[in-house]
């Protein structure tokens, strides 16, 4: 049995920093059920990158798989997925040792920049 995984470009930027992007170089990936799976993600970031992987089945919302903020570069996620953060290669490839038929979906890699020391403060002014 074969399984088709469709990839699309993804970027999530909660703030308009204009300083981050991700590229998923593979448009379609086909693997046999039970075979290893790798979905590539290359990122660029001017600050400290927070990286995410999501999956989306047809007619459903995004499902969070895993994230990297800091610490251990090998991140374990749900459903047997994992990703390794490689700062010098600017990659965050998603892997699974054995693909299942239920893994057929769209996958999105996302990045969010965080530059330390740039948190702003809210200011409240009276209406008069």
UniProtKB/TrEMBL annotation:
Leader sequence residues: 1-19
Name of the protein in its database record: Ig-like domain-containing protein
Lineage: Eukaryota, Metazoa, Chordata, Craniata, Vertebrata
Source organism of this protein record: Felis catus
Keyword GTP-binding among record annotations: no
PROSITE patterns: IG_LIKE (PS50835)
Pfam families: V-set
Name of the gene: TRAV3
Annotated keywords: Adaptive immunity, Immunity, Immunoglobulin domain, Receptor, Signal, T cell receptor
Source domain of life: Eukaryota
Keyword Signal: yes
InterPro entries registered for this protein in UniProt: Ig-like_dom, Ig-like_dom_sf, Ig-like_fold, Ig_sub, Ig_V-set, TCR_variable_region
Domain Ig-like span(s) in chain numbering: 14-125
SUPFAM superfamilies named in the record: Immunoglobulin
